[in-house]
Amino acid sequence: MIGYFVTGTDTNVGKTYVTCALARRARALGLKVFAFKPIESGCVRAEDGSYVGADQELLVEAAGGWQRGPLRGLYRLPLAAAPLVAAEDAGVAINLALVAKTAHDGIAQARPALTLVEGAGGWRVPITRNADMSTLARDVGLPVLLVARAGLGTINHTLLTIEAIERNGRSLAAVVFSRRPDDDLSMALRNRDEVMRRWSGTSLVFETETSVLDPLLALRRAT
Predict the structure, then answer these.
(1) Distance between terminal CA atoms of the chain?
(2) What average pLDDT score do residues 5-34 get?
(3) Which of 34, 52, 84, 165 stands the most exposed, by the fewest C-beta atoms within 10 Å?
């Protein structure tokens, strides 16, 4: 099995976009995918009074729409804020053990060729009073896939996040620079090259062509 815990250098850097693209590419190559975002804030209330996580639904659809119940996502919080802040606002306590168990149960039940567990926000975003996204990555136990912006400011943010991931003893499988339509390609490539001068792992610049992500489907790292 290939698997990644997907984190970002910040919020809105393209984590869900990249995760969905990787899931769709894997399915196009005939692989079964389990794509799971356990915690989402900024969710919208549906007509039946429940909350819908837009990113959670996008991931499930990209994985083929087979996931049901808790495998579609565990926590849907209305306030658009860090998970801890949004959970406290909603009067909810996030159970990290439950999140990790649900992820592992999904893997055991589905036996996917590719597992993608997407975090919320960046590596140091708090989930509980005593845990942040790095704690969840540790508990899930998958190699980390870091998504970063491709444009201005990304070198510092990316290198700092790489340092934090490695300081926590996690295996960083790759960095994907998510290039937006208004990001200059030559600048995006230069930014990637500057990061690679300090970190020699797999590093990709992705915009729309999903075959660019194929190296991620060949990386089989120990969990």
Answers:
(1) 10
(2) 97
(3) 52
